């Protein structure tokens, strides 16, 4: 374990620069992809399923391998794994930008998710293990604020790049940022976790990846192309692997997903709330970006700016709500916030052709942003308060993976349930968009009920400032601590 360093020392500044730039490239990528989807569809062709795969390919490998990425950092060195993830993420971004067709783009997005799974757990893990304890709160606060800026400007930058140049620059922009992060990492000390001697749960990682891949393939392809040998085999293999995964985890000495954590009703309830809220969030914002451009005629830049108030509200309000929840407990805000989110999503049913931004889009966006601001910081508190301090890192990692898994499944399932699975590239979404928003609204409200039933109002936990919400929902607003944080 390296000697800890002061935040204001030269080494401390390099650590902060490296982690902010590395995390920032992931947050920026997450918040620009949604706004580029219609342009991608027009260029590479295909129907809605191609756009679903552009998002879900990344989320698939990211959510399945996220916990393994944290474990690899503990074992082989956090800086080393963080660097490897950054390099792979950057090369995959180049592959995305150069992709000649949809299949190549989806393959590159799969690799980008692998890089993200190595990159995402490492940023706060490096801060937590190399910055001295008295400075960690300030360091995390600066990290959260500056990575939040990257997320906030993402829709604007993405829309401008799509309109001024090409959707390919949405991925090319990652390269110079990642290069700067790699230069800064040369000055960051290496660190390893106390779990370095444990046995890696590689079989568990393979099983959950195969399970999610098979299930998502079936969910996206069957509604569009019907049952065939490939989709049937994927469905059977996916279900079998997902059933086997908890059995494998229960027998592994150092599992990726410790099932014992779910003995806590609050931990289980907080993650169920995370799943429902982030599923609604991911599915709704995926379709909202398409609705604004394909149905309402917005440019990519205008669509990016249209949803920017959500991020601004999150940046302004989340910290204050987190401080309030620290005093009062997370139960009440976690119960109220998802219901407010649901009201916002219901208001987005007004976003139809012929409506103006002020009357059709802004009311729902504002209410939804307020609801998320009420929900997210207390959600982090509830997750961390439900486990012992020794398990705080893995609990945060599990919650992080749950939020990404929710987005993965929502992008695959929501268009099917709402009757949008046969929408062609560039075609208006029609009445199915309103149905999707109402389904998402009900899911959010259900999350509030789950929180009321399962969260202990008496729990308290230290909370940290949170990064801004990204509009592709590929990076949740929970602290990505490593699996075994040094306390």
SSE order and pairing:
Blueprint (H helix, E strand, L loop, with lengths): L9 H35 L3 H29 L1 H21 L3 H18 L2 H9 L2 H32 L4 H4 L1 H12 L16 H24 L3 H23 L13 H31 L4 H7 L1 H21 L2 H17 L9 H29 L6 H26 L14 H23 L33
Poorly predicted sequence stretches spanning 5 or more consecutive residues? 458-487
Mean pLDDT: 81
**Category from helices, strands and their pairing:** mainly alpha
Residues in β-strands, percent:
under 5%
* Share of helix, binned: over 70%
Instruction: List SSEs in N-to-C order.
Output: HHHHHHHHHHHHHHHHH
- Beta strand count: 0
The helix count comes to 17
How far is it from the N-terminal to the C-terminal residue, by CA? 12 Å
C-alpha geometry? globular
Q: What's the Cα radius of gyration?
A: 21 Å
Major sheet, described briefly? none
């Amino acid at each position: 374990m390296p000697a800890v360093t002061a935040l204001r020392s030269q080494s401390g500044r390099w650590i902060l620069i490296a982690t902010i730039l590395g995390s920032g490239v992931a947050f920026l990528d997450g918040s620009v992809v949604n706004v580029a989807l219609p342009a991608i569809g027009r260029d590479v062709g295909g129907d809605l399923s191609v756009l679903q795969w552009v998002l879900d390919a990344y989320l698939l490998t990211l959510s399945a391998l996220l916990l393994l990425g944290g474990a690899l950092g503990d074992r082989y060195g956090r800086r080393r794994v963080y660097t490897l993830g950054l390099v792979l993420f950057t090369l995959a971004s180049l592959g995305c930008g150069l992709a000649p067709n949809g299949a190549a783009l989806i393959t590159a997005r799969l690799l980008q998710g692998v890089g993200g799974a190595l990159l995402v757990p490492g940023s706060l893990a490096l801060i937590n293990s190399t910055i001295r304890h008295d400075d960690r709160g300030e360091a995390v606060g600066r990290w959260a604020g500056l990575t939040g800026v990257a997320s906030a400007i993402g829709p604007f930058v993405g829309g401008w790049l799509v309109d001024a140049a090409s959707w390919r620059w949405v991925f090319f922009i990652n390269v110079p940022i990642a290069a700067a992060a790699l230069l800064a990492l040369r000055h960051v000390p290496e660190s390893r976790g106390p779990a370095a001697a444990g046995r890696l749960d590689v079989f568990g990682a393979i099983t959950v990846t195969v399970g999610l891949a098979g299930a998502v393939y079936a969910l996206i392809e069957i509604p569009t192309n019907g049952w065939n040998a490939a989709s049937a085999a994927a469905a059977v293999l996916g279900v079998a692997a997902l059933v086997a995964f908890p059995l494998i985890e229960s027998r592994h000495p150092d599992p990726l997903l410790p099932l014992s954590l779910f003995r806590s009703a609050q931990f289980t309830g907080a993650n169920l709330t995370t799943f429902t809220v982030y599923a609604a969030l991911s599915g709704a914002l995926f379709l909202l970006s398409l609705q604004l451009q394909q149905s309402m005629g917005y440019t990519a830049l205008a669509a990016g700016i249209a949803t920017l108030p959500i991020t601004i509200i999150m940046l302004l309000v989340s910290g204050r709500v987190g401080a309030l929840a620290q005093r009062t407990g997370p139960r009440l805000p976690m119960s109220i916030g998802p219901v407010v989110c649901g009201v916002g999503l219901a208001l987005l049913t007004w976003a139809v052709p012929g409506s103006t931004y002020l009357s059709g889009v802004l009311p729902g966006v504002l209410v939804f942003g307020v609801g998320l601001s009420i929900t997210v910081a207390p959600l982090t508190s509830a997750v961390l308060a439900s486990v012992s301090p020794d398990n705080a890192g893995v609990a945060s990692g599990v919650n992080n993976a749950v939020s990404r898994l929710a987005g993965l499944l929502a992008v695959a399932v929501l268009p099917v349930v709402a009757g949008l699975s046969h929408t062609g590239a560039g075609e208006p979404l029609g009445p199915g968009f309103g149905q999707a928003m109402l389904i998402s609204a009900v899911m959010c409200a259900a999350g509030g009920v789950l929180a009321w039933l399962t969260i202990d109002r008496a729990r308290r936990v230290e909370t940290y400032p949170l990064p801004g919400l990204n509009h592709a929902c590929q990076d949740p607003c929970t602290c990505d601590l490593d699996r075994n944080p040094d306390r």
